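Practice problem: predict the structure.
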Amino acid sequence: MTSRAQELLAARARRVNAIRQRVIAAVVASFVLAWGVVAWNGSMGADTSSAAQTTTPAETTTPTDSTDTYSEDTYSDDSTSSDDGASLSTGQS
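Answer:
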């Protein structure tokens, strides 16, 4: 190789090394900043520090008396239903 080619390769190596150092510095700075935000604001998860508050939903009592009879009294449903919505199934959110 000629001295000119070696100079070009050395310059390229310096540029690549500088870019690598900048990327590493940016990653470390971002990591430190993120940890600083977490330390300042606290975790972003569920709030476990306060006591759980239990509230009772307002009950709307509308009894529905229904008599459902299917195919010659093989099934009969005589019930009063009052759904207060206190429990959620896995399909609800």
